[in-house]
Amino acid sequence: MTATLIYCYDPMCSWCWGFRPTWTKLQKALQSLIDSDQLTIQPMLGGLAIDSDAPMAEEMKDKLEGTWKNIQSSLGTEFNFDFWQTASPRRSTYPACRACYVARDMGLEEEMYHAIQEAYYLKAKNPSDLDALTECAEHIGLNPSGFQKNMQHVKSERLLEEEIEQARHLGLNSFPSLALLIGDKLTSIPLDYKDHSSMLNAIKKALS
């Protein structure tokens, strides 16, 4: 029986950005299990913040900027703090999640995920805005008008909301989260942001 490693994330989750180098190492370390059909990796969108056109409250801005500084201090993750002065932040991550959902159908979910992260955290772009997401789509080779049409379809059909409900049903309420599904048994994999080896060992132990 092939096991499924679920990676629950939000492209605008700063801890997901901090986790990215270790997650990349873990995926590489799991490649032999994937190649031998013992394991598949299933990304799942978590949805941190619903659609909103309201400017972000100053208290929330300060809180999130403080989180970025904490991650930078503890993990060495690079951030462009110009975002908090030059962008117009909104507490809305659903559009960025939808962009990853659209890219998934093209086999480009991870590429979109990375493009959004880099636009947000390194280039001080605002992925709550459709224009910024369309730039990311073009960057990974998607047709901009087709991308925007698909974004509207995913929104009108509430496809993202269905996936978020599934994540909540599985108990994946924080991002990033890892859980191993074998049959109908779901095992949470504790995260280590600095070293992939403990997660690799936990997965191998659960598979044995």
Notes on the protein architecture:
This protein is α+β, with helices and mostly antiparallel strands. It contains ten helices and four strands, in the order βααβαααααααββα. The protein has helices at residues 14-29, 31-35, 58-75, 83-86, 94-104, 109-121, 130-139, 144-156, 159-169, 197-207; strands at 3-9, 39-45, 177-182, 185-188. A four-stranded mixed beta sheet has the order 2-1-3-4, sandwiched between helices. Helix 5 crosses helix 8 (144-156) and helix 6 packs across helix 7 (130-139). The mean pLDDT is 97.
Keywords:
10 helices; 208 residues; 4 strands; 54% helix; 4-stranded mixed sheet; alpha+beta
Question: Helix and strand layout, with pairings?
Answer:
Elements: E1 3-9, H1 14-29, H2 31-35, E2 39-45, H3 58-75, H4 83-86, H5 94-104, H6 109-121, H7 130-139, H8 144-156, H9 159-169, E3 177-182, E4 185-188, H10 197-207
Parallel strand pairs: 1-2
Antiparallel strand pairs: 1-3, 3-4
Number of strands: 4
- N-to-C SSE series? EHHEHHHHHHHEEH
Helix share of residues?
40-55%
Unreliable spans are none
What is the average per-residue confidence, as pLDDT, rounded to a whole number? 97
Structural class: alpha+beta
Number of helices: 10
Strand content: 5-15%
Instruction: Profile the largest sheet.
Output: 4 strands, mixed
CA-to-CA gap between the ends? 12 Å
Shape: globular
Q: Main sheet: which strands, in order across?
A: 2-1-3-4
The value of Rg in angstroms is 17 Å
